[in-house]
Design brief:
Blueprint: E1 5-11, E2 22-32, E3 37-48, H1 51-57, H2 60-66, E4 76-83, E5 86-92, E6 100-106, E7 111-117, H3 120-132, H4 138-149, H5 162-175, E8 205-207, E9 210-216, E10 219-233, E11 242-254, E12 257-273, E13 276-289, E14 294-311, E15 314-328, E16 330-332, E17 336-338, E18 343-358, E19 364-378, E20 385-395, H6 400-405, E21 412-421, E22 430-439
Antiparallel strand pairs: 1-22, 2-3, 2-4, 4-5, 5-6, 6-7, 8-10, 9-10, 10-11, 11-12, 12-13, 13-14, 14-15, 15-18, 16-17, 18-19, 19-20, 20-21, 21-22
Length: about 450
Amino acid sequence: MKKISVTIILSLFPYCAFSGVFQADITVSNFNSKTNSYEYPETQNFDFDTAGNFFDQLTNKGFSASFPGYNSVTSIVSAKTLYQGVDINVTLPAGSTNSSKLILEIPVLGVTKSFTRAKRSDATDAMEDYLRNDTDRTYSRILEYQVANTPNSQIAGNPTSLQGQLVSSTFDYATNIPPSSPSSSASGTSSGAGGAGAKGSSNPTLVGVGGGTYTQKGLEVSIISVPISKAFGIDSDDPRKKMLINGQFNYVTVGQAASFQGSLGIGYMQPITDNWYLIPSVSYGAIGSVDLASLGQIFSTSLSSNYQFNFAGYDISFVNMFGYYKTLPLSIGNVASSDPNIDNYVFKNGIFPSKVVPFFFGHDVRIKGIFTDTEFTGSEVFVRQYNEVGIELSSVKKIDWLETVSFGLADSFSLSGKYVFSIENPNNFEGYEIGMGYDF
């Protein structure tokens, strides 16, 4: 049987004004030949959503368009910029007809680099190439600083990064094992999505679509994700033993800047007892963004445990995961090269109590509580800890009206809501999620 889970996630966060991930305060001082001095310095503020627009502003064409009277040889330019959360200073002192100099300073990294070229435009191009090509590992060090100190990293350090999405994808699959001894429904039977026992479950193909918006220290990030997973039975004598393959594609936007994440994982579900399962897995993911000049890849390995028992009429699952996540070097011409040295050990634990109860119009519904805690150790990250608290309601039997409107394809319906927050630092990450799901 083919099973398709379609999820729509709406997130409700406090509104905050968005400012570009690339910002610049640029001051231009023009030379007055009559007084033989520099006069009337002019400062302008710029916000950019993309790296391309940011670098374009630091060119002769950008200066000329924004500052009347700018001279590519004699004008002095001072740009104090914020490059995805990292302070970078660019200075263009007065040059000559055949020589121009640019000074690049990154105070938090202790970097000072000079570029002297025949023309000012060549000097600014040389600076851009220096950063994009990761010369002297400067760009990798910028990424390492972002992971630890800013909400801007698309590679690691926050729940919406590639690392955070790999953690979520692996853990979510371990939570989807149906209760081995499901609580009885109000009508005395138990079936459908919420009641199928693990021994009797099939090997579905799951295709989903999800979305969400998050705030990370004032930075708004939106995600549209498409997860795909497939289970394969590998032992005819014990259908609980399965090979698991899951992949996920994410489209992430920060303001108007877009980035793309993709991942693929392989796991194995091994029953230890009738109500305890272990799932070792390995995963690989990559992130690429021309807009954000970001590039990276991560390898991970993890071990998940799902232990189930019945207490006072409730089905309870304890899900624990331990994973290791390591960034790998990656280079794509004309975009960026990076080799950040990020190594993290991740502990994610959750408890999921559930019970089948009578609901409206004679339908039984499984109500499941969601309580998780996620902790990162190893390399320093911006969001080291966060929690999820929520509830999920899912139909136990087929719903006539749902089957009618879906032309007989839909098997069940679910509705969920979660509050996501960080106890360690609530200003770093907080939000609400609402989800609806259909099984086909």
